[in-house]
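User: Please predict the structure of the protein below. I'd like the answer in structure-token form so I can feed it into my own downstream comparison script.

Assistant: Understood. Taking the following sequence of 964 residues as input:
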Amino acid sequence: MPVCPKCLKYFETARSLTFHRAQPRAACNVRDGWDTEIVSTTPANERNNHDVDDVPVASFPSDSGHAMDFDPGLAWEGNDNRRSLSPPISVPVDSLGRVLVTFPRAAEIFEGGETFLTRFELDPYSVCRRLVPFYPFANLDDWRVANFLLTSGLSMRALDEFLSLQATKNMPLSFWTAKDLRARAELLPSGPRWKFQIVPTTHSTKEPIQLYFRDTLDCVEALFNHPFFEDKMDFTPFRLFTTAERVVRVFTEWMSSDGAWDMQSKIPEGGTVCGVILSSDKTNITNMCGGRVAHPLLISLANIKMKVRNKASSHAFLLLALMPIPQFIHPVPRMCSVLQECLFHQCLDIVLEPLKQAARFGRMMSDPVGNLRYCFTHLVSYIVDTPEARMLACVCGNTSPVTTAMYKDFGDPYRHPPRTATTTLAQLSSIECDVLDVDQYFAACEPFRLSGISHPFWRDWLLAEPSEFLTPESLHEWHRQFWDHDVCWCKQALGAAELDFRFSIIPRITGIPHFSNGITKLKQVGGRVQRDVQRYIIVVIAGATDPDVIIAIRALMEFRYLSQATAITSTTRDKIRASLQEFHDHKDALIENGFRRGEKTKHVLKHWHIPKLELMQSVVPSVERVGSILQWSADTTEHAHIEVIKDPASTTNNHNYDSQICRCLDRYEKCRLFDTALALHGSTTESIPVPPVGQDTDGNDSDTYDGDECRNVLDDIWTPKQKVTNFFDVAARLLAALPGSVPRPPRTFIAGSTAICLNYDPSLKRIPIDTVAEQFGLPDLRGALGDYLNREGNIAQNFHTFGGQRRSPPDVHLPFKELDVWYKVRLQQKTYHDSSEITPTFTIHAHPPDRLLKYGRYDAAIMNIDDHWQWPSSGLQGHTVVQVRLIMCSAAPRGSNGINHFSSRFLMYAQRFDIVPQGNSSVERTTGLHVLKRATRASGSELGEIFPSPESVDFGQIHPSTAT
């Protein structure tokens, strides 16, 4: 049972304990007076100081009426006001070796919570499941068939047709009609339940306004208590530093930001901050006919780690409400839009009221392991596109939603003061006009550039600040801005035909789209295509236009790439700021050359009225306040629209979409939760838990199960079915395999920070060396093999030296006569910012000419030539760029046992590129890219050598120079 940590009184439910601690005159209310006055001990001009020794904390009014400061190095004992020194706080190190400083005495846990299974067993039909674990279904097979049919998206008619088949009738099912199946589904334990409400309005509409929504606290608790997020959530704010000196700060998760730290300092000691994430955007339900549109409101938690939250398969975003899209009756169309925006805020007030109360008074919630935490639900991020951001900030068009800048200021090279909640509310309160008179009230708001919304939804949400929770959004503000503006500038600079031609001659790269027909005629371009185009845009325009134009576009590209990092250091933050400043220093060249033109008029524009350009100024401050910007992308939420809106809508009868979508989602959610509970209970025949010897099996420990088994079960249900192959794990298993059970050398192995995989069977098997040399166009192959063997000897070693005279003659005798050849090799690396994550695989080809490839295909690679440096942290220092011409392994002599000194590893023939110096720099000034040329011998032949292959090799990209 939940217990109050102050008076030690027991309560039957967590909600009762919350009400007890929220009583304004109770001694257990640690927030007494806090809700009316929140004071930070950190001066306003020092809020951005990253010195952890000066921890910002809350100030609680004392009995004398003066603010009483809490020292994070001191702890309270008992209920008196005496202070005692707390033990020194240890400074741990995270898995990447970074110094981790956590907020002291935060996120305390209490007894009396409930696990996922405990809540599941509170269902009224849990008694039936003690006899039949799969109730309301008969057995495991019955449930599996039902689960498939319920989540298949089939209509009632299609279900009835399937169940009427003779083959289906032969199956021992407990249901025979679609109606019976869905009736049984209604008996499954439910998640947060849907509600319905008619929203009253003061102005006429064509139809009554219907609002479908769920209790926000129930949704937050469902996420906060979900077992899948047990080891994937942060509860305590922390600060990361690269070294113990705490000089370079690292911003990653939201909990690593100053915003989380400040929120924790403004709630009672021991409380837990539950960062609420909201997202809303209109999405089409029907495309071909009808034009029906839905406006979903999604909710998630910032405590969930971003690499989990941003995966659609994790279902970390729940549909909270279907916002109404009414048609108001008003003679002025602009006023109809104002009324719709006012109604949106009114509906948000209705839906979000429980979260506002929990942010003020707190709420006891159970975490994934069943501990109670005193949680405060503050708004952290509202993920929206730019028009909806203006609507939420209550400002009119051509006005920044997060700063005081208007359209004339969008091109300024600095950030304008933030538009705070206090400023907006003060402006609204100064308007003396009848709110119901929409025309007059809108006119009174125009001098303040407000949109006419009188009651913003965030006005009474504690610590809600629009300039902070309207976080930068990469999909619309960066990638869409790139397509709408940067690509248009390039098209004006080169011409559409030349731009398409340059894209068409880019070498193909496996795994990355190739624009063989160019990009100017693409239709329905999405975020993925926009990101793919960004990979090539700089090399495509290199040398084709004014250098200042190239620098401006390259600076914006650097800004986007640096800002998308999952871990941003204070050094990277300064580079982001510098790259944006570099664009502003060279942007005038775009206007001077006539490249900035209107979309319709095609006239040269002499201004920079681009709202998304001004929003870039808020990226660096947002990194400090909310952590990595990439986690707030709308990629995840827009993909969630398919799952929670479009797929359920496809199962409806095209009438009353909202109610049918809610019913469909309720069924899907019930099936997922029931499947999770069955798996955790071990009711399936594949995963029945076996208790240890001596443990009581009468059900007293029904919630206790092996942690690894539990995680495996949850991963099977809540992660993608088609997972990316982890070659690091494959290589580790091959290395640990028994001798003789796997081929030698192993086809998958780890070299440095790269996992390398070759096909089990070679592309060419047992080919004479001279034939290989002729087929691949390598006349010095036999001599190169001879030099390699003379330098390496019988015991192969890593040898990474280019150059030198070819000492072996072209007809040198070799201890082997045949080669096994592979046309490609796959490479996989760990992500740069998180070594626990793997990247998609890249493929390096070394394919000779044939009928389909007239000139063959030989890809570039980056090879390590100095073991003191490691890619990619070192850049090209200690590395060289090569072209892979041949991947091979010596074939064992025929009739032997297949083992010799020379077939113990793979070999690679590579030809080197030299970096062309660019004055005092190694990179070209305008593009920031390296310029390469082929290395040659004194005789003029291309410089190539044999190396242990493909060890210490990473994927590289080279493109033909089109500079004129």
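That's the full token string. The chain is about 30% helix and 15% strand.
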